[in-house]
From TrEMBL:
<dbReference type="GO" id="GO:0016301">
    <property type="term" value="F:kinase activity"/>
</dbReference>
<keyword id="KW-1133">Transmembrane helix</keyword>
<protein>
    <submittedName>
        <fullName>LRR receptor-like serine threonine-kinase</fullName>
    </submittedName>
</protein>
<feature type="transmembrane region" description="Helical">
    <location>
        <begin position="151"/>
        <end position="172"/>
    </location>
</feature>
<keyword id="KW-0812">Transmembrane</keyword>
<keyword id="KW-0472">Membrane</keyword>
Length: 191
């Protein structure tokens, strides 16, 4: 499973009976993962879902959690489904638009699929988390040294070529001066 993911959160409630976290985990988790997989285009195994009471998030104080549990039976407490849709890094950005398209489709694609498994989507409850940046790739020893070689070798070659060119110019100028000095000495001797 890839490490990169898009978070998709939504609130749902049961269609025919109140929905509990345990009931969802036991009876609705797998069909829900299939719906998420169909919508995102990612394998079912890459969909991680966590269910909690929507009215009392995990970080809420104990009193708020108790109030949510003691609500009247006629008033159903929706579940918050926090979903991590894992995907290769180059496909993560396409997940949110796929869900938005399924929500906005004229045939209510996502809503219809959820109703088919006994879940009613709470209108306006779908939110998208910012996907975490992928962890830095560890640098291998050979990768670092090969980069140094790619930089140092051309520099050494250029310096060596310039040194040889300078040496060639030096030798040429020296011979030219000696030849001129010898020609001047011969011309003086002939006088």
């Amino acid at each position: 499973m890839p490490e990169t993911f898009q978070e998709v959160d939504m609130k749902v409630e049961g269609v025919t009976e109140p929905l509990t976290v345990n009931g969802f985990n036991a009876n609705k988790m797998q069909p829900f993962q299939v719906v998420m997989s169909d919508t995102s285009g990612q394998p079912v195994e890459w969909i991680i879902v966590k269910a909690s009471l929507a009215a009392a998030p995990a970080g809420a104080p104990p009193a708020a959690r108790r109030r949510a549990m003691l609500q009247a039976p006629a008033q159903q407490t929706p579940l918050l489904l926090t979903c991590q849709v894992h995907a290769p890094a180059d496909q993560v950005a396409s997940i949110e638009p796929k869900f938005q398209a399924a929500l906005a489709a004229p045939d209510y694609t996502l809503q219809r699929q959820l109703l088919g498994i006994g879940l009613r989507l709470i209108n306006g409850s779908v939110t998208y988390g910012v996907p975490p940046s992928p962890p830095p790739t560890p640098k291998s020893d050979s990768g670092g040294s090969s980069n140094v070689v790619k930089i140092v070798v051309p520099i050494v070659v250029v310096v060596a070529v310039l040194a040889l060119a300078g040496l060639g110019v030096f030798v040429y100028m020296r011979r030219k001066r000696r030849a001129q000095a010898g020609a001047e000495a011969a011309a003086r001797a002939n006088l």
